[in-house]
Specification:
Elements: E1 2-5, E2 11-14, H1 25-34, H2 41-52, H3 57-72, H4 81-96
Antiparallel strand pairs: 1-2
């Protein structure tokens, strides 16, 4: 998807992903600052609307992260600092001796 602001300051969305973006992000920002203050929200609304129509990857990531956290849960309390130091020492002894 690429965005271009046309001379009448309307925002036109082109959903053809195979085309190369004709306007860089920097150029788009410069054009946005040239818009009258009352018209600056219109491009934002169009961008938000275009994002709402796409499936969200974040929700999929969130559910995967929750599943992974669930795998780490135990009924035992977390080890103390002393216990962790002992485990590390034991591991180092096994590894290096």
């Amino acid at each position: 998807m690429f965005l271009s602001i046309v001379p009448n300051w309307n925002l036109r969305l082109n959903l053809n992903r195979s085309k190369i973006t004709s306007m860089s992000l920097q150029k788009l920002k410069e054009q946005a600052f040239q818009l009258p203050e009352s018209d600056r929200l219109e491009p934002v609304r169009a961008i938000i609307e275009s994002l709402q129509n796409q499936p969200s990857q974040k929700s999929e990531r969130t559910s995967i992260i929750k599943q992974m956290k669930g795998l780490l849960k135990t009924n035992q309390p977390a080890p103390t600092d002393e216990q962790i130091k002992a485990m590390l020492e034991e591991h180092r002894v096994e590894k290096y001796l």
